[in-house]
Amino acid sequence: MEQAVRLESLSKTYGSGQNAVTALTEVSLDFRAGSFTAIMGPSGSGKSTLLQCAAGLDRPTSGRVVIAETDLTGLSETALTLLRRDKIGFVFQAFNLLPSLTAEQNVALPLRLAGRKPGRTEVAAVLAEVGLGNRGRHRPAELSGGQQQRVAIARALVTKPAVLFADEPTGALDTSTSREVLALLRGLVDQHGQTIVMVTHDPVTAAKADRVVFLADGVLAGELVNPTAEAIAARMTRMEVSAC
Ligand SMILES: Nc1ncnc2c1ncn2[C@@H]1O[C@H](COP(=O)(O)OP(=O)(O)OP(=O)(O)O)[C@@H](O)[C@H]1O
To answer: Is the ipTM of this complex over 0.90?
Structure first.
C-alpha cells in the first residue's frame, strides 16, 4: 500500500550536554496515502516535535523522513524549502495568515512563492472547496476564527500537497466551529483522498481520524484504529496516570 509519509527510527534531541532534552526516541511510523491520523499524548510527549520533523520544519537528530518517495535526510536547505512548498501543507492552531492580504491573496501566496501567477479560478476553486467561495476579498480580521482556519487550510491545499500536517487545528476554536473544521478535514480525506496527520489534545477531535497514534515520553505508546472518543479518553487517562 502506498505510504505518503514514512518515519524511520526518528530521534530528536534539543541542546547538548547537561542541557540536552530528548524529545523523540526511535519513532517509526507509516502514514498511508489517503488516511487521516491523529497524534496524541501527554504534554511534552513529543507530538509537535514529531510533526515539525515530519514536515521538514525541523531536522531530526537521527532517523529518516520520507515524503512521497523523497528522503528528506541530507537535502540542502533550498531543496527542503522546495519540497515543503510543493509536497507539504501545514496548518497551525493560530491560523498564521498574513493580515494585510485578502483571503484570495493568502491562498495564492504559495503559488506566487513558487514563481507561478495563480489563476483566479484556481484560487476560487480551493476557497469554494473549504466553503468560502464568497469571502475571497475579505482580510483575516474581517473573518471569524473558523473562516480564518478554512483560509489557512485552503492555502495549505493549493499546491495539492502529498500530506497535510495540522498542529491543534481546532485548538483556538469553539466547539461548534471546531466540529465544522473537522468535518471539512474529514471530507478532504473521504472525497479527495487527502492524507492528513493531526496533533490534538482532544479525544472527540481525534475520534474523527481513522487511527490515533499515542506518544509517551518521546516513544510510541500504541495506537487505536477506528477509535471512539471514549476509547481514546480512557487510553489517555491511563497514560497520564502512569506518568505520575
Ligand atoms: N526548541 C526546544 N528546545 C529545547 N527543548 C524543547 C524544544 N522544543 C521542545 N522541547 C522539549 O521537547 C519535549 C517535547 O516537546 P513537544 O513540544 O514536542 O511536546 P508536545 O507533546 O507537543 O507538548 P504539548 O502537548 O505541551 O504541546 C519537551 O520536553 C519540550 O520541553
So the answer is: yes
Range of the domain at 113: 3-243
- For residue 47 and ligand 1, the question of a CB distance below 6 A is answered with yes
Tell me the residue ranges of DSSP E strands in the chain.
Answer: 3-14, 21-32, 36-40, 62-67, 70-71, 88-91, 163-167, 196-199, 211-216, 219-225
Atom 27 of ligand 1, nearest CA residue: 43
Counted domains in the chain = 1
State which of 11, 22, 47 you would mutate to test the pocket of ligand 1, scoring each by most atoms of that ligand within 8 A of its C-beta.
Answer: 47
Instruction: Write out pLDDT tens, residues 129-173.
Output: 999 988 999 999 999 999 999 999 999 999 999 999 999 999 999
Relative to the CA of 201, which ligand 1 atom is closest? 25
In whole angstroms, what is the distance from residue 169 CA to residue 66 CA? 23
CATH code for position 148: 3.40.50.300
